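Researcher: Next entry: Piezo non-specific cation channel R-Ras-binding domain-containing protein (Trapa incisa).
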Amino acid sequence: MDQTFSIASENSFAVPGSSLGVILSYMWGLMQSNNDVVCYCCFVLIFLWNFSLLSMVYLGALFIYALCVNTGPSHLFWILVLIYSEFCILLQYLYQIIIQHCGLSIHVNFLQELGFPQYKIMSPFVISNLPLFLVYLFTLLQTSITARNVQNINFPRRVYELREGEDANNQSWKQRVQALLFLPLYCSVTHIIRRLFRYWISLTQGGESAPYFVQVSMDVKQWPEDGIQPKRIESGINELLSVMHSRRCKNLNGNFLSASRVRIQSIERSTESPHIALAVFEVLYASPLTESCSVIWQNSLTPAADVAREISMAKGGCVFENTGFPYPIVSVIGGGKREIDLYAYIFCADLVVFFLVAFFYQSIIKNKSEFLEVYQLEDQFPKEFVFTLMVIFFLIVLDRIIYLCSFATGKVIFYLFSLALFTYSVTRYAWYTAPPNKQAGRFALRVIYLTKAVSLALQATQIRYGIPRESTLYRQFLTSHVTKLNYWGFRLYRALPFLYELRCVLDWSCTTTSLRMYDWQKLEDIHASLFLVKCDVDLNRSRHHQGEKQSKMTKFCGGICLFLVLICVIWAPMLMYSSGNPTNIANPIKDASLRVDIKTEGGRLTLFETTLCRKTSWDNIDDHASLDPQGYLSTYNVKDIQLICCQPDASRLWIVPPMVQARFIRSLWWSMKIIFSWELMRDRPKGKEVVKYDSEVDDMNLPEPLEVIKVLNGSLNSFRIYSVYPRFFRVTGSGDVRFLEHEVELVSGDLVINHGNPEWWSFHDIDAPVVSKCGNLAGPMAIVVSEETPRKFWTK
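Model: Predicted structure:
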């Protein structure tokens, strides 16, 4: 009483910080009870820290051994991991001593691939190698935990110790050297090969998970007053197993053999029958059931099933009567394998990896932080991007096929291949990511590989417990329970494009069935409809009484919100693709240039080219009537309209060698075309900042070839071109040039050669209106409508 009162008093006057201590104590206790999981997370963390070769050893230890072995990692495994961690810490420390205190600068790519930093670290040594120290700390803790439960390790005996009747004193010195040197090596290699073979068998065939239990039902006619003595039952079963073992191995020396052993855990009366006693035994060791027992202490993958089979054989062979077991055996049930099906979780993780690669592709490959801008720049999907997504997609399909066929060996090979492929790909991209955006690319790689690590861990757990049997493969995960989560998950699954159809076709193709594909899909639709109806009945109608009106919250969430969503679906696309898009911003012309080319069968020459053009906004022009007397621009936003006035004289000289000009003049008699080209520069859209508009003059508006020849020869100074280009045109948001809806006037002008030293060309607009903003610029003039473009919120 006093002790209870004192404890209550202490709790009542506890300081506020004690609750934090309780939480930390609880978290520490939780970590201790799941310390192996914490170690596994640290194994992945250290690889994601620097993507080094030294850290790959932890990945191999995790995904190839620790998560796959059915008995769990042994104490020796944790000791080896601890030694390797100490070795890595020592190497990192020696490397820092060399580069910081010895003044050496080592620039070897292989050292960086191993995990050594290229430059001196400015932070403390522990902080710079924090994941490595975390692995060391938690591995040390796990080693101490497993050391408490470790049992004596029985190593295989030497071959010469098992040779009955062999006298070691009669051996020659060569035989003794061979026995001392080669036989232990042979035994060790044989033991390793046997363990690897057993490990492969456990992966492909599965095995029971510890602890291993066997339930024995005994017929007890009359229960003793002091109860059934557990030790008596345990010794009787062990004696029975020893007799069965002696019968199998009667031709061998019993000194080197061991029978199966069990330890009783509980004895209780059956609730169904009062004369039946249920005894539960834990299997300590299961002797092999083969006739040949030359393999000493062979570990069975199914010890509970083997011991149950031995007891059943003893029951049929009348061994119980000979050993004096007190009660008749009614039935024996082995522990069996634990059947789990994790395919749904594996598929979800792989699907997330697929979408992550699709979204973060350019952050990794293109080394840019913009979201999916690569498609706007290139107007096509890069082939590497498509191939990567195709590989991930077909790996998901192959995993589904293996799952439907219950092909355990194929699953193990597929798992190892996926582990090697993703680890190699992520490491390769991490090593060769360009420095400017290296952090963004590596962050995306960490997210992708962390998600894939979840998938690999689930696959390893599935391999550890065995591939599901064909009778349990076709249970749909989402329709197994009626919950809100399953309902919305099933809705999302049916909403993803082609996912439902692909699953139906693949399942029908890989399943032995008499149904046609059409009938199979009909059954799938019926099953889906029944599940949705059941969800509606259990989740909605069961809570609503018949005749009761719906609540306002239900009407608001299910009616008004849905109505608003439908309104947005109807009108939002039209609004977004209209000129009234609220995200549209002005996209004026920043620069303009003009070029006039003359083209013949002999080639193409540029007569006139200027980059000296003045851009004036329509807001800053007063005399709109003189520029647009017909009112062509009245329907457009004045902020999008610009007046472009260019210099009449070319900004480049006319410098053509006489021989070239003479050959070109001869080709004018055969064919002649004049091309007028505008080149406009804007800020958007990305990849289409430059808009080029080429206008080829019709043949009826071209000058006579003789006029052009005379101008080139110097006999004339100019020739006239009619209807060269439209005075008004618009540039769309996508970067295309369009005429106005009305028929606008076409510009005509004179091309004049100025015989100076050197010569140059000029273009005079003969119908140019008088505009004060253009001043004395009587060259090419145009009025351009540059349409607005939407703002890209994910770009800088």
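Model: Note for the record: The two ends are 71 Å apart (CA to CA).
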